[in-house]
Amino acid sequence: MDNQVRIITAVSVLIFLVMIALAVVNDIPGFIPDILIFIGLTLFYAWTYKVFRMNTPIFTLLIVGHILHSCGIFGWYHISPVPIQWDHITHFFGTLPFALLFFNFLSQWADINFFTRKNLLLLMTVFVAAMGVGAIVELSEFLGFLSLGFGDGAFMFGTGDGVAGFEGTDLIDAIGGGWINEGWDFVFNTIGILFGITIMLLSKLIIKKPEKAYYFEPIESFSKRI
Asked: Which helix (H) or strand (E) holds 53?
């Protein structure tokens, strides 16, 4: 692990610890388990940095995705600071870096020629793997709801999981219940993944790294020259 990764990891853990303190101050304890998991994931990313062939942008974006969700301690799932619902933002930036991660990792087995069946299968694998991460998140939310019920944080059904109606009335039960939230989560997961794959494809087309060339000579001809 190089110094840059150590610094990013240390700063990220410090940010999460501050957020835990803010969650306590703002009386939103539901986000504390999420943030503790994010600290563990940050350390896991640092530990597997070389195994997954990460680079600094991918490593940083993985952590940023977790930080954006943790910003729910500021009430942004209830009132988003941007025109788009905060839940959509977190799902987009939550899956995008995983698309970058899996693409970068699997690219070591890609063919040099761009349009091949092998490369198509690798792209499909990237998509399915990143979608799988999103599915695990949704499963954890469902199991958390069954155990903990309503509230804030990823393990409870609360603000950001509904549809705000007139005068603040939540209409989610009237228009399809949790299916609406689930569906929009997967929609923005998919958009984030496709955007990440597009970025990596464009980077491969625009920035072409020189391939190492090897010259092999039959040992018979080499021995004759000796």
From this structure: none
Rounded distance between C-alpha atoms, residue 101 and residue 99, angstroms:
5
Identify whether 86 is part of a domain. Answer: yes
In this structure, what are the phi and psi dihedrals at residue 150, rounded to the nearest 5 degrees? -90, 150
Residue 220 lies in a domain: no
> Cα separation of 156 and 146, whole Å?
8
d(CA 122, CA 139): 25
Whether 87 contacts 134, CB under 8 Å: no
Q: Which residue has the higher pLDDT, 181 or 73?
A: 73
Phi, psi of 142, rounded to the nearest 5 degrees? -65, -45
User: 153: closest CA among 30, 52, 64, 18?
Assistant: 30
The pTM score is 0.81
Q: Which two tokens stand for residue 42?
A: 């940050």
Task: Let me know if residue 224 belongs to a domain.
Answer: no
- 138 lies in some domain: yes
Which positions ≥6 away from 224 have C-beta within 8 Å? Answer: none
- What angle, rounded to 10 degrees, do the helices at 32-47 and 56-70 form? 170
- 23-48, pLDDT tens digit by residue? 999 888 888 999 999 999 999 999 99
What is the number of domains present in the chain?
1
Segments forming the whole domain that contains residue 139: 3-208
| Max intra-chain CA distance, the chain | 90
Predicted local confidence at residue 221, as pLDDT: 58
